[in-house]
Design goal:
CATH class: Alpha Beta
Number of strands: 5
Structural class: alpha/beta
Order of helices and strands: EHEHHHEHEE
Distance between the termini: 6 Å
Radius of gyration: 16 Å
CATH superfamily: Thiolase/Chalcone synthase
Number of domains: 1
Strand order of the largest sheet: 1-5-4-2-3
Strand content: 25-35%
Helix content: 25-40%
Shape: elongated
């Protein structure tokens, strides 16, 4: 198994609101993920990363969107089409990949253990299997809003 070399890491501050993203409404989940990714990636030169995977990790998923859908359904109201799109965490992972020109796999997981550790383990597997050369792991939670992003690449063989 390869070790991972951490290239950049950021934690999104709870008190700061992320910039809204066109096409993502009602919830802070996707803007948090995109903001943490942007801070992490903008602080590192993107050359030489090769195929970079995007891994979204969250124990609870997008609570804001889930709540909005549940409220509409309970009230027998029409659920807006954007909520179906953004209810899948891979949607924001795809947004991040497209925004930054990342060409590796896009994966979203609900961790069984420590969220960031599970994300790093998945990144290591993607790199070890040859699916990616590097990975951006974004851990997002709501209540309270928080996000962390870590950019890694494969290191030495162990």
């Amino acid at each position: 198994m390869r070790t991972l070399e951490v290239l950049a890491e950021v934690v999104w501050p709870v008190e700061e609101k992320p910039t809204p993203i066109a096409g993502f409404v009602m919830s802070s989940f996707s803007p948090l993920a995109a903001a943490a990714a942007e801070r992490c990636l903008s602080g590192y030169p993107m050359t030489g990363l090769g195929r970079t995977a995007v891994v979204i990790v969250s124990t609870s998923g997008d609570l804001g969107t889930a709540s909005g859908v549940a409220t509409a359904v309970d009230a027998a109201k029409r659920v807006g089409p954007l909520l179906f799109f953004q209810s899948v965490p891979n949607a924001v992972a795809g947004h991040i990949a497209a925004r930054w020109g990342l060409t590796g796999p896009v994966v979203s997981v609900c961790p069984l253990g420590e969220p960031l550790d599970d994300g790093l383990e998945l990144a290591a597997l993607l790199i070890e299997d040859g699916d990616a050369d590097s990975a951006l792991i974004v851990h997002v939670e709501q209540e309270p809003d928080s996000a962390q992003a870590v950019l890694v690449r494969g290191g030495e063989q162990q």
